[in-house]
Amino acid sequence: MKTPIPLARGSFLFGNAAALRKDPLGTLHRAWKKYGDLVEISLPQRRMFVASHPDLVSEIFVHGKHRFLKPAAQPGSEGLELVLGNGLVTNPEHDSWLPQRRMIQPMFHRRRIAQMGQTMVTAIADMLARWEKSYPSGTMLDLHHEMTAVTLDIINRTMFSTTGADQQADRVGAAVGLAAEFVFQRGRSLLRPPLSWPLPRHRAFLQSQAEMDQIIDRIIQQRRLSGQQHDDLLDMLLAARDEETGQGMSEAQLRDEVKTIFAAGHETTANALTWTWYLLAQHPDALHRLQNELDHTLQGRLPTPEDLENLPYTRQVFQEALRLYPPAPLVPRYLPAAAPLGDHLLPPDSMLIVSIFNIHRHPDFWQRPDTFDPDRFSSERSAGRHRYAFMPFGAGPRMCIGNHFAMLEGTLLLAATAQRYELQLLPDQTVETQVAVTMRPKEGLPMRLRARQGKVIRPRS
Q1: Which is nearest to 387 in space by CA: 158, 61, 44, 55?
Q2: What is the dihedral of CA 48, 54, 60, 63, to 10 degrees?
Q3: 3-state DSSP call for residue 198?
Q4: Which residues make beta-bridge pairs with 11?
Q5: Model pTM?
Q6: Higher-confidence position of 404 and 165
Q7: DSSP string for 90-141
Q8: Distance between CA atoms of 461 and 459, rounded to whole angstroms?
């Protein structure tokens, strides 16, 4: 007989609904601390469970592809599929998802990603030049805004071979971000009137979606009519064929994959870098060690992808930030039928949340789990660690296809920025997290930018 799952009851009438709307991450973290690695969260209209252990991750993401489905499989679902359509991230059907993955996988091969590295370096150099002109040492900037701007520029260049000056691509990125936040907030609301109701927020959302689709269709059509080859992600999407059937993408799928790469390709890395600097500002010893490594290895020139193997501490700093502030801290799944999990049996038509945030702070796998310690990712201390104790990009067949892209982009940006600047928090500054699919600072992250004295960045010869 399966053992019962502990229940976090909450209030008599509404359970934990109000707490989840106010603070989903904290509510699920406290439930884990009190009740353990698998807990039911009391809600008035559905059954929901939270899993917070690497062994459960293996059952759910690696071996449970037909039992634990993407939320879009739930009848009446109104999740990210409203924004991204039936793209690689949202498609709930394994049989139709697999050909999508086969077509897109070659675009994110390590060799291809390395080729995109120089495009990233060029965008980073442009950001540094803009900072030098716009932000004298000691002035304030919103770091989250700046990291979003540069990662959007990078995805513009790698996707469409355009710079941030291309307003069409910028509008796609902005629309994706706003639409994702609308969907997340709608999902947390107890009252969700149909989108067909002519409410102002509904009209704004639907209008932005229509505009985004029109822009993407126009960009695709312009590329086809031009007959030019750019060897960017759009060219690869247009040329992609299923290796088994030889079929390419339909127009709808092509549009959905463009939106998906945009959504996953800039905001997650921007958030991760923002949290990295938030942590470094509180740990000056780690920052100085990072800068010493950069000074010794780079000798004043911009980093390139080839340099990263000689910058181990830089990578460790970024990994530790991803551990403490994973870009997508809560990953939902839907159970159409009853499913075993660990020593328990989950009921049909229920939701399951995998808390990557909790797993990354699990004391069975991390010493002093709430402490910022980049050395925990050294090769010596990483040896023997559970393979799913650290999973900022997910796990199993559905693991984020852009994980190597994000690691290269994030590490290059961190290296180039720390080589030239230090970023400081304001006195008595309070920073709150906000989870809207991804985890970001609630009100941005104002920081004081200070140039390192005598540190002139030279282009690579």
Answers
A1: 55
A2: -170
A3: coil
A4: 15
A5: 0.93
A6: 404
A7: T---HHHHHHHHHHHGGGG-HHHHHHHHHHHHHHHHHHHHHHHHH--TT-EE
A8: 6
Given this structure, which CATH class describes domain 7-451?
mainly alpha
Copy the structure tokens of residue 171.
């509008």
Task: Give 373's contacts (C-beta < 8 A, 6+ positions apart).
Answer: 320
Token readout for 5 is 């799952």
Q: In this predicted structure, what is the pLDDT of residue 460?
A: 54
* Amino acid found at 283: H
pLDDT in tens, 30-64: 999 999 999 999 998 889 999 999 999 999 999 99
- With tokens 């709608």, the residue in question is 186
User: Is 74 within 8 Å of 48 (Cβ atoms)?
Assistant: no
Q: How confident is residue 1, by pLDDT bands cut at 50, 70 and 90? A: very low
Q: Are 419 and 298 in contact (CB under 8 A)?
A: yes
Instruction: Report residue 174 as tokens.
Output: 């902005």
Alpha-carbon distance 216 to 199, whole Å? 26
Strand pairing report for 48-51 and 350-355: parallel
Per the listing, tokens 């793209």 go with 87
Residue 107 tokens read as 């675009």
pLDDT at 425: 96
pLDDT at 54 (0 to 100): 97
End-to-end CA distance of the chain: 68
DSSP string, 28-54: HHHHHHHH-SEEEE--SS--EEEE--H
Q: Tell me: pLDDT of 146 over 90.
A: yes
Interhelix angle 167-188/143-160, rounded to 10 degrees, is 120
What distance lies between CA 376 and its chain's CA centroid?
Answer: 22
Tokens of 86: 């039936």
357, HSE (Cβ side, Cα atoms, 13 Å) = 24
Q: Which residue shows structure tokens 């985004």? A: 212
Calpha distance 410→435 (Å, rounded): 20
Give me 97's structure tokens: 């998802």
Q: How far is CA 266 from CA 10, 63, 259, 273, 419, in A?
A: 36, 29, 11, 11, 22
Query: What pLDDT is attached to residue 168?
Result: 66
CA-nearest of 411, 365, 419 to 391 is 365
Residue type, 231: D
